[in-house]
Amino acid sequence: MSDKPVSLLIPPEGYADWLGDLKTRIHAAQQRATLAVNRELVLLYWQIGRDILARQAEQGWGAKVIDRLAQDLRRAFPDMKGFSRANLMYMRAFAECFRQPKMRPV
Known about the structure:
The protein has helices at 6-9, 15-59, 64-76, 85-97. The protein has four helices and no strands. This is YhcG N-terminal domain-containing protein.
């Protein structure tokens, strides 16, 4: 027989329903947080691409600036992935295809 008090072995009335409700709310909050993070990252990537396009057009910067930018961003954010030269080119292409993003609120 267990040394635990009986009150810990048998949950009070309504406990299972309450626990189920808490689990549902926790999962919903996790999903909303994930959507919010994804939305912000997509917007950030679009903004980076837009900035690259603008600087190349306005200041005549060539493709080599993307190589340098990739190195500098990876050095500044070593724990973050996604700042390779290829990804920066994807961001540039993304901004070129979508001149103004239409983001819905989360």
